[in-house]
C-alpha cells in the first residue's frame, strides 16, 4: 500500500511538473494606458496565452507576485484561474484519462469546459432576479432575456464570442429593432457577461472588444404650437373618456416633467395640494415638484382623474390615435411629454440649472442634451428665408 502511494506521488509530481502557469501583461498598451492580463500556460513545451479580459496600468502590476497591487477583486479571479488549473490537473490524473498525456489541447478543452459549459441564460435570469429591483429596469431586462431565449433556446458560455454578437445584432435587425434598441440589448447582455467574469468564469472573448454603441434614445419633443393645440383639444371635450384621461396624463407630463412611472403612483389629492413629494421610481431618490396652474386646470377638468390605476400601454395607444386625428406629425408616447417639458421650458426662458433640478438629473451634462436639441431646432429655422425667394 505504501509503495503504491509512493509511486502515485512520484507520478503526480511528474504530471504537475509538465504544467507551468504565470500571469503576464500583454505588450499592447491601449488608449487608457492599460495592458491586458494574460494567463500564460506551458504544457510539455507548448505555450498558450489565454486572455483574461482584465486590463491594468503597468505601474499597478506586481511583476514578482503576478498580481494587481490595488485590485483584490481581479486578484481573486486570477486565484480562481489557478485553482481551476489545479482541478484540471487533479481530474486528469485521477480520472480515466490518467493513461493519457495531458496535452495543451486537452487542457484548454477542460479549462473552458470546466466552468462555462452551463447555460448563460440561466445565469442571466438568476442574477437578474437577485440584483434588479427597479420594476421598469426589470421589465427591460426580462424583455432582453426573452428575445435571447427565442433566438437560441439555450446559450452555453462557450458559444459566446464576437461572431455570436454579429449574428445576434442581425437577428435583432430582422425583428425590426432600431439601432438604439439593438445597442441597448447588447449592453445589457454585456453587463451580465461582466458579472459572470467577476465570478471567475472564463469567456471566449475579450469584453473590451465588444463595442456596444450609443444607447441614447431619440428624444422626440413637441413644439410649443403642437402642445398648445393638444391643450385646446383637451378642453373641447371631443375625445372618448379613455382618450381624455390619456391626453390629460400626457399634458400633465408636458407641464411638469413627470415620468409615467411616477405619475401612475400619485393620488388625486397629491396634486391638489400643489406640491409633490415622492421617491422617484427610476432614480430611487427623493424629489419635490410644484404643480403649475396649467397642470392643475387639467386635473380639475376631470374629477375622476388619478382615482383609478393608469395603464401605460392604453395611454400610448390613445395618444397615437389622437396624434393621427389631429395631424400631429410626431410619434407621441408618454415619455415624449417629459422631453416636451424640457425643450419648452428652455424656450420659455428657463435656465439649464433650474431644468436640471426639475428633471432631477444628477449630472448637468445629461440636461445639456436639451440645450443642444433646442439649438438644432433654431439652426433649422434658416429655412424660413425660403418663403422670400421660392414661390
Question: What's this entry about, in short?
Answer:
By secondary structure, the chain is mainly alpha-helical. 55% of the residues lie in helices and 10% in strands.
Overall description:
Belongs to the 'phage' integrase family. InterPro entries: DNA_brk_join_enz (IPR011010), Integrase-like_cat_sf (IPR013762), Integrase_catalytic (IPR002104), Integrase_recombinase_N (IPR010998), SAM-like_dom (IPR025269), Tyrosine_recombinase_XerCD (IPR050090). This is Site-specific recombinase XerD. Keywords: DNA recombination, DNA-binding. With 391 residues, the chain is mainly alpha-helical. The chain has 3 domains: 113 residues, no CATH class; 90 residues, Tyrosine recombinase, N-terminal domain (DNA polymerase, domain 1); 161 residues, Orthogonal Bundle (hpI Integrase, Chain A), CATH 1.10.443. Helix content is 55%, strand content 10%. A hairpin with a 4-residue loop joins strand 4 and strand 5. The N and C termini lie far apart (106 Å).
Query: How many DSSP H or I helices?
Result: 17
Count every beta strand, where a strand is a DSSP E run of 2 or more residues.
7
By secondary-structure content and strand pairing, the structural class works out as mainly alpha
Give me the side-by-side strand order of the main sheet. Answer: 1-2-3
For this entry, give a set of tags.
mainly alpha; elongated; DNA recombination; hpI Integrase, Chain A; three-stranded antiparallel sheet; 10% strand; DNA polymerase, domain 1; 17 helices; Tyrosine_recombinase_XerCD
Amino acid at each position: 500500500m505504501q509503495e503504491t502511494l509512493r509511486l502515485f506521488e512520484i507520478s503526480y509530481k511528474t504530471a504537475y511538473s509538465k504544467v507551468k502557469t504565470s500571469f503576464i501583461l500583454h505588450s499592447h498598451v491601449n488608449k487608457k494606458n492599460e495592458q491586458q492580463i494574460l494567463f500564460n500556460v506551458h504544457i510539455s513545451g507548448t505555450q498558450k496565452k489565454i486572455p483574461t479580459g482584465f486590463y491594468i496600468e503597468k505601474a499597478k502590476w506586481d511583476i514578482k507576485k503576478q498580481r494587481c497591487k490595488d485590485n483584490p477583486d481581479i486578484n481573486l479571479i486570477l486565484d480562481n484561474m489557478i485553482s481551476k488549473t489545479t482541478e484540471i490537473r487533479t481530474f486528469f490524473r485521477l480520472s480515466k484519462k490518467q493513461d493519457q498525456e495531458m496535452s495543451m489541447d486537452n487542457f484548454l478543452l477542460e479549462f473552458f469546459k470546466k466552468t462555462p459549459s452551463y447555460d448563460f441564460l440561466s445565469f442571466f435570469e438568476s442574477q437578474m432576479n437577485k440584483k434588479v429591483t427597479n420594476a421598469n429596469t426589470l421589465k427591460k431586462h426580462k424583455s432582453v432575456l426573452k428575445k435571447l431565449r427565442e433566438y437560441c433556446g439555450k446559450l452555453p458560455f462557450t458559444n459566446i464570442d464576437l461572431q455570436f454578437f454579429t449574428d445576434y445584432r442581425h437577428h435583432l435587425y430582422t425583428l425590426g429593432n432600431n439601432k438604439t434598441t439593438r445597442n441597448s440589448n447588447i449592453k445589457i447582455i454585456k453587463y451580465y457577461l461582466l458579472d459572470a467574469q467577476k465570478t471567475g468564469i472564463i469567456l471566449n472573448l475579450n469584453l473590451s472588444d465588444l463595442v456596444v454603441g450609443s444607447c441614447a434614445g431619440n428624444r422626440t419633443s413637441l413644439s410649443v404650437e403642437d402642445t398648445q393645440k393638444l391643450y385646446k383639444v383637451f378642453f373641447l371635450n371631443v375625445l372618448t373618456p379613455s382618450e381624455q384621461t390619456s391626453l390629460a396624463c400626457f399634458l400633465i407630463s408636458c407641464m411638469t416633467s413627470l415620468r409615467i412611472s411616477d405619475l401612475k403612483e400619485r393620488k388625486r389629492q397629491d396634486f391638489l395640494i400643489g406640491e409633490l413629494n415622492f421617491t422617484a421610481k427610476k432614480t430611487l431618490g427623493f424629489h419635490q415638484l410644484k404643480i403649475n396652474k396649467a397642470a392643475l386646470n387639467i386635473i380639475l377638468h376631470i374629477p375622476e382623474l388619478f382615482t383609478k390605476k393608469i395603464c401605460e400601454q392604453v395611454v400610448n395607444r390613445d395618444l397615437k390615435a389622437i396624434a393621427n386625428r389631429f395631424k400631429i406629425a410626431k410619434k407621441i408616447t408618454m415619455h415624449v411629454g417629459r422631453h416636451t417639458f424640457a425643450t419648452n421650458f428652455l424656450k420659455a426662458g428657463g435656465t439649464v440649472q433650474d431644468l436640471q433640478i426639475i428633471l432631477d438629473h444628477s449630472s448637468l451634462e445629461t440636461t445639456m442634451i436639451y440645450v443642444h436639441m433646442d439649438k438644432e431646432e433654431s439652426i433649422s429655422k434658416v429655412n424660413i428665408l425660403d418663403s422670400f425667394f421660392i414661390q
